[in-house]
């Protein structure tokens, strides 16, 4: 079963403490990570993913990770479809069929051959989501995944993700309390360099 264990985790940048002695275990469901700008939400995701190292403490992760960045980080030299299938293993034809199904569900059925640089911000964000979904991991780290989406598209995308990732461990950074309450099972808030849980 997927799980994340944070033990006495601290992180500083240029002498400024961002995270201080964080202790928490996450082992199920959809979790929202909230807090003021600069309190370490994205930093915590990057530490969990291994993109950065903590100054002290330990992070134990059980399960493979997919990461949807706040910046889309797509490959502009290849098509939308190729951006999604590049994370998949196995038969190319089958991979393309699965990727197209995901893209269709996210309202991108007309964009298979489009280069990401020609997409709107919201469309590019959905391609990033599709790529993460196609990777079929146990843990999903989502950094403001619904930015740039209008209300209807956001609602449809959240519904599909909730269904598709129902058996996964999902941590989402967001500033939108309504988004957090609708999409996640519980809310973790970073205040004063500590992690606290609120009922959602």
Verbal overview:
The protein is an alpha/beta fold and 200 residues long. The chain has one domain (3-199): 3-Layer(aba) Sandwich (Rossmann fold). It contains 6 helices and 9 strands. The protein has helices at residues 41-49, 80-85, 92-105, 121-134, 151-164, 177-183, and strands spanning 3-13, 16-26, 30-35, 56-62, 65-68, 139-143, 169-173, 186-191, 194-199. A 6-stranded mixed sheet has the order 5-6-7-3-8-9, sandwiched between helices. The longest helix is centred in the middle third of the chain and has 14 residues, at 92-105. The chain is globular, with a radius of gyration of 17 Å.
Layout of SSEs?
Layout: E1 3-13, E2 16-26, E3 30-35, H1 41-49, E4 56-62, E5 65-68, H2 80-85, H3 92-105, H4 121-134, E6 139-143, H5 151-164, E7 169-173, H6 177-183, E8 186-191, E9 194-199
Parallel strand pairs: 3-7, 3-8, 5-6, 6-7
Antiparallel strand pairs: 1-2, 1-4, 8-9
Helix pairs in contact: 3-4
Describe the structure concisely for a colleague.
The protein is α/β, with parallel strands linked by helices.
């Amino acid at each position: 079963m997927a799980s994340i264990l944070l033990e006495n985790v601290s992180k500083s940048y240029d002498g400024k403490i961002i995270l201080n002695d964080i202790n928490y275990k996450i082992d199920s469901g959809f979790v929202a990570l909230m807090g003021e700008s600069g309190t370490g939400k994205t930093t915590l995701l990057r530490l969990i993913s291994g993109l950065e190292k903590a100054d002290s403490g330990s992070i134990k992760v059980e399960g493979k990770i997919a990461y949807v960045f706040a910046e889309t980080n797509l490959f502009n030299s290849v098509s939308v479809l190729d951006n999604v299938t590049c994370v998949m293993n196995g038969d190319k034809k089958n991979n393309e069929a699965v990727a197209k199904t995901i893209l269709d569900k996210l309202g991108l059925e007309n964009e298979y051959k489009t280069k990401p640089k020609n997409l709107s911000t919201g469309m590019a964000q959905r391609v990033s989501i599709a790529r993460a979904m196609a990777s079929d991991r146990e843990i999903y780290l989502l950094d403001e995944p619904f930015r740039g989406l209008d209300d209807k598209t956001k609602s449809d995308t959240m519904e599909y993700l909730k269904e598709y990732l129902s058996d996964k461990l999902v941590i989402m950074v967001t500033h939108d309390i309504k988004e957090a309450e609708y999409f996640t099972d519980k809310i973790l808030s970073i205040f004063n360099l500590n992690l606290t849980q609120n009922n959602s």
